[in-house]
Specification:
Elements: H1 9-13, E1 17-18, E2 28-29, E3 34-40, H2 49-61, E4 68-72, E5 82-85, E6 91-94, H3 107-122, E7 129-135, E8 137-138, E9 149-151, E10 157-159, H4 160-167, E11 175-180, E12 206-211, H5 234-243, H6 265-275, E13 283-284, H7 285-293, H8 298-302, H9 306-312, H10 315-328, H11 335-345, H12 348-352, H13 356-378, H14 383-396
């Protein structure tokens, strides 16, 4: 089995940022890193303004010393290819309003930019990378949703396996934070494995990732509405928690669940699970890791008493379970089993069409299951797998914005 995530203290510092003040994003980096932001639809009709807004939001959050590049739509900043919808619901197109566009979001340029980031980091062992993708995704049911794709401007897909192949150029110890918010994006958690295939051993990479939806489901965030105050999606809540600033410029607090004075990606993930009231069903790489290495019958997992689950949960996981219990009006020691039974009886359409209870039920069950599987792993005898999981959890608790 290949090694993964052998994270040194120096490498972890590459994702550490010291905020100048609460809510400030103008922070000084401890070590340099590179950011690549990729956005746009596969064509004009699906290049909604919310996708452009996500890219622009991220450019505002990156610390001033960060080298960053943007691939967006056809790559031409003068092209009127952004679909907008004003107050009277009349659609129109305008040119992108992004500070800089370095090329189109097509397959050739994406591969080139990933190679560029990998090359830069090869000459800078203390560096790290933030890779952010916003737009549309397509499912691949023939692969059991393991090889879904990110939809590129040239109507070509960038699949999980293609992405995994591009990541082979990155230095093995370089911390990589991957955030993808398109539909069916959870499949990209499979970059943890060789060739992006969950049937294979772990890849020799230092990567963690956060995704807006599980591999089988759609995600929110592709609206032509121009009013950003109305956006309810994973990008909005995840990065607001990480930076302390929402996309309209207002301060955000409450995501420091362990009260250590900083917010990690794991806490931002928890914040999104609690506050994002869209159809999103977020997933992270540690979820994918656990479901690969711990195979326990679901009925046995969900029969765990709720009080026991809480004793195994981290502070942020505890907050998610309690807040979702309140939202779903769940109580009692058998609430995980009860929620699971209700979920199994619901139709898939309930969650896909945005039924709030069905969506939040998925989030609750997945979080409870991850907590229980992590406990099973930690009490097992495979020290190598336990070590790699611990390193992955450390990577997920870093913050590339501070």
């Amino acid at each position: 089995m290949a090694a993964i995530l052998s994270i040194s203290a120096a490498a972890l510092c590459a994702f550490s940022w010291m905020p100048e003040s609460r809510g400030s994003v103008a922070a000084r980096p401890v070590a340099p890193y590179r950011a690549l932001l990729v956005g746009g639809g596969p064509d004009m009709e699906h290049n909604q303004v919310a996708i452009e807004s996500n890219v622009r939001y991220l450019t505002r959050l990156l610390p001033v010393a960060t080298p960053w590049r943007v691939l967006f739509a056809d790559g031409n900043p003068a092209s009127k290819n952004v679909l907008c919808q004003d107050g009277d619901k009349k659609p129109y197109y305008r040119a992108p309003e992004i500070p800089r566009i370095d090329g189109p979001s097509d397959q050739v340029h994406l591969k080139t930019e990933l190679s560029r980031v990998a090359s830069d980091l090869s000459s800078n062992p203390s560096g790290s990378a933030l890779l952010y993708f916003t737009g549309h995704g397509s499912p691949n049911g023939r692969s059991q949703y393991n090889n879904n794709r990110y939809d590129l401007w040239d109507n070509k897909g960038f699949s999980v396996k293609t992405f995994a192949d591009s990541l082979k150029e990155f230095p093995k110890t370089t911390p990589i934070a991957l955030v993808m918010v398109e539909c069916y994006s959870g499949a990209f958690g499979n970059v943890l494995f060789q060739d992006g295939d969950p049937a294979n051993p772990l890849a020799d990479l230092n990567i963690c990732g956060f995704f807006a939806s599980v591999a089988q489901r759609q995600a929110a965030g592709c609206t032509p509405e121009i009013n950003e105050a109305n956006y309810r999606d994973f990008t909005s809540f995840f990065f607001a928690a990480l930076s302390g600033i929402d996309r309209t410029g207002h301060p955000v607090t409450g995501a420091d669940y362990n009260h250590d004075g900083k917010v990690g990606m794991n806490e931002a993930f928890a914040y999104a699970l609690i506050h994002d009231d869209s159809i999103d069903t977020p997933v992270c790489t540690s979820d994918v890791f656990l479901r690969k290495f711990i195979v326990t019958p679901e009925k046995e997992v969900v029969s765990t008493p709720y009080s026991q689950v809480l004793t195994w949960a981290s502070k942020s996981q505890h907050a998610v379970l309690d807040e979702l219990s309140k939202y779903l009006d769940l109580s009692g020691e058998d609430r995980v089993s009860y929620a699971y039974d209700e979920f199994r009886k619901a139709t898939d359409a309930d969650a896909q069409t945005g039924n709030p209870r069905a969506v939040h039920m998925i989030r609750f069950i997945r979080m409870a299951k991850s907590v229980i599987l992590a406990h099973i792993l930690q009490t097992g005898s495979d020290d190598m797998i336990k070590g790699k999981y611990s390193a992955l959890i450390q990577a997920e608790s870093a913050n590339p914005l501070r």
